[in-house]
Each structure stands twice: as C-alpha cells, then as structure tokens.
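Anyone up for a design puzzle?
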C-alpha cells in the first residue's frame, strides 16, 4: 500500500502536498546539465526558452538551436529529460550534441532540448512538483509547466519537423515506486508487468514507420541488448510488431513524442538497471538511436 492517501479515493490537494514534502534534491541540474552547455560545437546557439515557475533562477530551460539554419534542409527535434529521473535521456542528448552532431549538421537542422524537466532531474522523479506526469500532459493549456513551455516554444517556430526522437528510460523503479504512486494518486488499479531487460522503442500507433524503428534498433544493437518479449510475446503489456518495438497512440496519450506533428517519431527506452549496463553504455545507446534515425532519414 502506498504511504499517502486513502485506498479507493483519488488524491486531493492535501495528499499532493504530502507527496511533495517527501521529495528531496539528490543531484544538481546546474552541475550536471547546465555546466555542459558551455562546451558545444559552434553550430549550436544556446537559447533560454523559459523557466519553471517553482524556482525560475534554479530551473531555467534551454534549447540548442542552429546558429545559421540550412536552407531547404529537414528539421529534427531531439528531446531528453521529459521524465527527469531518466538520466541517459538527458546525458545522451548532451553527448550527441557535444560529440556526434557534427556528422549531420551540414545535412539537417537539429534542435536539442536536453532536459525538459529539471526539477524531476534533481529529485530523480517522474512527476513534477504538482504530481503531474509531464509525458502525459502535452495538450493545449497544459497544467504541467514543463510541457506547456516546451509546446509554446516549438509551436512558435514556423518550420515543420521531419523527425522527433524523444529519449527515455524504463527503470525498475517504474514498478517499485512510480506505478504504485500513480495507482494511489488516481485510485485506479494499475496493471503490472515485468520490466523488460533491454532497449526498446515506442512508435506512434497511428503511423509507426517500422523501417525507421528497425534502423534505430539495428544501430542500438551495437551498444546494448534489445529487450526480449515476455512469455506472452509482449513488452510491457503491448504487442511487438517488430523486434524491440511497441506502439502507443502518442497524441491520444498526450506524449511528448506526438505533440509537434513530426512526420517521423520514435521514443527510446533504455534499461539502466541491467546487470550489464553502465551510464556510458546507456548514454551511448541514446546517441546510437539518434544516429540510426538520422541515417535512415538521410538514406
């Protein structure tokens, strides 16, 4: 039983305050993320697109954008840290920008938003301080500042994105902490499943573009193992149309990967709790996913 709330009753404001009081700062956004923004290729201009209202000075929001965009070249959006606790999404986005982007910046226009949820990064949390999941909050007038500020920023841009790749992790704490918290908050029983040991992708159910997903999987295989199916042939309760690929209706679920209408999209899911995983492997797998997608688009 989750320690907050009454079984069968959704949380009110008092329970949400109790939950927030349980959270604590465990690492530094300034030291681990913002410090890396000074060491990027000249291709990128670092711009602040907003700040979280919980503490605007502590949680400024930054994007890396082309200093001189290429004419008639496709646009690509890379997002990380929508769930702040998913470390390699943030660090993988920064690693790609810092060390691997140069191979593509003469062919595509790349925007990187490395840490959408810095409060979640510091507290190692899936939710924001309002007990909202930013990755279920990408809809108009969203109450989640992380989601709304990013949507406003991207929505104000005139260009259409060809690709959006959203970098995530699936961790053991999804079962031990976050799903029980969700069940308690909403008073809705949550299905349980085994956390898959390995990397997988979430494609868009409406337009899965399996050749894109397969190209990503092929590249990621060079750095980490792909999640097998369970005894029912599923991954986290979902059918698997191609190795290591499941599908969600991203717009219906208000996921980050579906908010901007990119023609191609994919959400990565790295498994950092594998006995064979290291932070370096996880970060490199995220980079491999981005590179696999870009190579597919560029033919």
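Challenge accepted. My sequence:
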């Amino acid at each position: 039983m989750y320690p907050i709330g009454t079984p069968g009753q959704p949380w009110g404001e008092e329970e949400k305050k109790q939950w927030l009081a349980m959270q604590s700062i465990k690492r530094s956004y300034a030291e681990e993320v913002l410090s890396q923004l000074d060491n990027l290729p000249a291709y990128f201009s670092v711009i602040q697109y907003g700040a979280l209202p919980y503490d605007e000075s502590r949680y400024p929001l930054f994007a890396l954008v082309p200093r001189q965009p290429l004419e008639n070249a496709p646009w690509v959006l890379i997002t990380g840290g929508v769930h702040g606790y998913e470390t390699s999404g943030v660090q993988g986005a920064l690693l790609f920008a810092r060390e691997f982007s140069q191979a593509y910046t003469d062919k595509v226009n790349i925007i990187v938003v490395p840490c959408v949820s810095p409060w979640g990064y510091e507290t190692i949390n899936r939710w924001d301080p309002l007990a909202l999941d930013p990755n279920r909050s990408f809809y108009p007038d969203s109450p989640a500042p992380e989601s709304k500020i990013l949507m406003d920023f991207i929505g104000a841009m005139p260009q259409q994105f060809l690709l959006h790749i959203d970098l995530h992790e699936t961790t053991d704490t999804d079962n031990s902490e976050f799903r029980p918290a969700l069940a308690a908050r909403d008073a809705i029983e949550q299905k349980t499943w085994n956390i898959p040991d390995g990397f997988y992708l979430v494609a868009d159910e409406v337009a899965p573009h399996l050749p894109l997903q397969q190209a990503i999987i092929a590249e990621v295989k060079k750095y980490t193992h792909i999640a097998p199916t369970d005894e029912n042939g599923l991954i986290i309760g979902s059918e698997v149309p191609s190795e290591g690929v499941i599908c969600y209706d991203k717009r219906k679920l208000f996921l980050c990967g579906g908010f901007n209408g990119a023609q191609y999209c994919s959400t990565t899911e790295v498994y950092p709790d594998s006995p064979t995983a290291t932070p370096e492997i996880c970060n490199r797998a995220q980079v491999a996913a981005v590179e696999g997608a870009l190579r597919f688009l560029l033919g």
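A detail worth pointing out: The domain at 13-298 is CATH 3.40.630.10 (Aminopeptidase).
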